[in-house]
Amino acid sequence: MNVAIDGPAGAGKSTIAKLVAKKLGLVYVDTGAMYRAVAIYLLDSGIDVNDKAAVAEKCKGANVDIKYEDGIQNVYLNGTNVTGRLREEAVGNTASVTSPVPEVRAQIFSLQRGLAERGGVIMDGRDIGTVVMPDADVKIYLTASSEVRATRRVKELQEKGEAANFEEIKRDIEERDHRDMTREISPLKQADDAILVDTSDMTIDQVVEKICSLCK
């Protein structure tokens, strides 16, 4: 069984996908982490990430690999484990800007499709059910209000001891939503055959149980 989970930033896709994968015995593939790894490469290179031509050329030097080590997914960039940097705010914003670049998407797309062809995977992202795994057995569109997503992000940052401004984070989430939904290539949208799951008023356990029930 292949399961596709799409949705906007901060909807809890990665958290839910990991838990569902564990309960159903599927392999979790964090597609967003792949794009974030490329974003790290571009950030570290010092180029202007808004320069599409520069991004298109530079991204060719980024080799992203996913390895399961002791049951934990680790993301490697050119042989270096960058898992610990994936959730940095600057990395997320850069990934949102650079992921629409055709050359970036082409580089990662083949890896995603290769994993899907093996079967027994669950992927989350923005275009999994529409582009990467259009034939997935189960498709979910996971979402939540921008207020709820911002609140979750503030809590996450505060638990790490980092400063967090609710209004700034909410505005950033809404701007990212707009970019993702209006980009020319593979925009974020609910697949015609995807099931909408709004997690605004649901606990994590409730969401996991809901998706697991849809996979039976």
Fold and architecture overview:
Helices cover 50% and strands 17% of the residues. The protein is built from nine helices and eight strands. Strand 4 and strand 5 form a beta hairpin. The strands form two sheets. A five-stranded parallel β-sheet has the order 2-6-1-7-8, sandwiched between helices. Strands 3-4-5 form a three-stranded antiparallel β-sheet. The termini are close together. It has helices at 13-24, 31-45, 52-58, 89-98, 102-118, 128-132, 146-159, 166-182, 204-214, and strands at residues 3-6, 27-30, 64-69, 72-77, 80-81, 121-125, 138-143, 195-198. It has two domains: 1-26 and 121-216, 3-Layer(aba) Sandwich (Rossmann fold); 33-119, P-loop containing nucleotide triphosphate hydrolases (Rossmann fold, 3-Layer(aba) Sandwich). It is an alpha/beta fold. The longest helix is centred in the middle third of the chain and has 17 residues, at 102-118.
* Model regions low in confidence, pLDDT < 50 over at least 5 residues: none
How many domain modules?
Answer: 2
The general outline is globular
Strand order of the largest sheet: 2-6-1-7-8
Q: How many E-type strands?
A: 8
Main sheet properties: 5 strands, parallel
State which percent range the strand residues make up: 15-25%
CATH class division of the largest domain: Alpha Beta
Query: Would you tell me the structural class of the helices and strands?
Result: alpha/beta
Report the span from N to C terminus: 10 Å
CATH topology of the largest domain: Rossmann fold
Percent of residues in helices comes to 40-55%
Which architecture name of the largest domain does CATH use? 3-Layer(aba) Sandwich
**CATH homologous superfamily of the largest domain?**
P-loop containing nucleotide triphosphate hydrolases
The value of Rg in angstroms is 16 Å
H-E string: EHEHHEEEHHEHEHHEH
- The number of distinct helices, counting runs of at least 4 residues, comes to 9
Mean pLDDT figure: 92
